[in-house]
Amino acid sequence: MTSYVMKDANPDDFDTIYATHPALPDTYIGYALDDGTLHRVPVVLWAVLSNGSPEPISMDGVWGGTSQDNNFVIFPDGHCARYEQCWDTIEEAIAALRKKSA
Asked: How many domains are contained in the chain?
């Protein structure tokens, strides 16, 4: 059996990356800012964690190097998601996350 666990990584740790896959072009991590604007960072890879969860990777790391209450993934078709939430538009995602941080 082939193991994709990184060298010296603990396979029992839930956030161990087992594999990566290229992200589709126009996939972004979006940051909903307090003033209702959006900052976006390109996703270059998807990490597959030991529990099977996908995590977006930018040039700054998983979730852009930070996991915040205001970030989400923007997919090429315009849909947005984070963990167990999803929205049809960027505007819906920004509105939902602004309410959460207020």
From this structure: 1
